Structure to design on (312 residues):
């Protein structure tokens, strides 16, 4: 555990529901080639509006870096229970098993939640910033770094999560749907999240019509999703995507690593003036990221956390 924790920096700690598991199909999710900015920025903005989700390729992060971190993670999750528990409980950062967040949510998952300091996270944050800068250009925001500066800020409230879904072969044959859930459906509260997983499937997103789509895993790529804060900052133009992970119905465990790019605690989360049409009003009340976070930690994982912040 110590090796992993030293490599990853300080562990501080950083929540699932199930609905019908039917309607599962593999969708055509936008794939964005980051080596061509001109094409990429239009694709990204369209994907953020339609899905709140897309995959990026040619991102410049070496497989080696991701694989090393994955291997370190597996080493940690394979340690005896007692050893792992020395890094817990996750309040807010640390090791957690089955229990997710403070509201009684559970899933077939173990995880480590931590603050962000290591090389991998810095590399992934750069990808997130590059994407946010392309969004800023495409939306004609006042400055290119209007969004990226929030997650580059030294006070940025970002975090990093390693999830380990133990192998549960044959699970799906069981009738109890709840037991199929690794991490229950939810939206991410932050601005943007960057996910990378090994080759084990399970990740799904919810489309606008409510259908769940399985996203084929791809360890060479990153999956980005719009968080609640970016939905608000675009006054609802971008969608904070609902997603979940099914338990690993295989002999192999699923390992995912997710960077959550959040703004500083005192940052006002409000629609960016340059996205607003003349006479357009904010759909949301005024609040800071700290207000949102405090409120989020009182909710159940699957709750729609933004409704409290919508204008009547
Ligand atoms: C969802 C996104 C991130 O994983 C996370 C989660 C956090 C936790 O696991 O402690 C939360 C969940 C997440 C949203 C609502 C609250 C907080 C559990 C929960 C019930 C680290 C985050 O920032 O919000």
């Amino acid at each position: 555990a110590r090796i992993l924790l030293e490599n990853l920096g300080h562990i501080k700690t950083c929540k699932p529901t199930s609905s019908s598991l039917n309607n599962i199909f593999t969708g055509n999710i936008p794939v964005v080639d980051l080596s061509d900015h001109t094409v990429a920025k239009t694709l990204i903005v369209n994907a953020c509006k339609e899905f709140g989700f897309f995959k990026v390729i040619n991102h410049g992060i070496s497989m080696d870096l991701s694989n090393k971190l994955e291997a370190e993670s597996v080493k940690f999750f394979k340690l005896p229970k007692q050893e792992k528990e020395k890094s817990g409980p996750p309040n807010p950062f640390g090791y957690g098993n089955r229990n997710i967040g403070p509201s009684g949510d559970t899933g077939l998952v173990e995880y480590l939640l931590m603050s962000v300091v290591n090389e991998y996270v810095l590399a992934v944050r750069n990808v997130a910033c590059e994407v946010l800068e392309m969004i800023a250009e495409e939306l004609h925001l006042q400055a290119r770094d209007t969004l990226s500066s929030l997650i580059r800020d030294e006070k940025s409230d970002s975090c990093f999560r390693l999830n380990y879904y133990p192998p549960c072969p044959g699970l799906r044959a069981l009738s109890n749907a709840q037991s199929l859930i690794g991490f229950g459906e939810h939206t991410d509260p932050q601005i943007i999240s960057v996910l990378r997983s090994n080759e084990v499937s399970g990740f799904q997103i919810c489309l606008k019509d409510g259908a769940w789509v399985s996203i084929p895993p791809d360890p060479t790529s990153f999956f980005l999703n719009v968080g609640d804060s970016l939905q608000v900052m675009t006054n609802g133009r971008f969608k904070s995507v609902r997603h979940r992970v099914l338990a690993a119905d295989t002999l192999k465990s699923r390992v995912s690593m997710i960077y959550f790019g959040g703004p500083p605690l005192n940052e006002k989360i409000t629609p960016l003036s340059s996205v607003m049409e003349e006479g357009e009003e904010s759909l949301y009340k005024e609040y800071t990221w700290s207000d949102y976070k405090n409120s989020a930690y009182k909710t159940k994982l699957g709750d729609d956390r933004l409704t409290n912040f919508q204008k009547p």
Notes: The CA atoms of residues 140 and 287 lie 24 Å apart. The helical segments are 2-8, 37-50, 63-77, 81-85, 119-138, 148-152, 228-233, 289-296. Residues 14-15, 100-101, 103, 105, 113, 159, 161, 186, 188-189, 260, 296-297, 299, 301 surround gibberellin A4 (CB under 6 Å). DSSP finds eight helices and 15 strands in the chain.
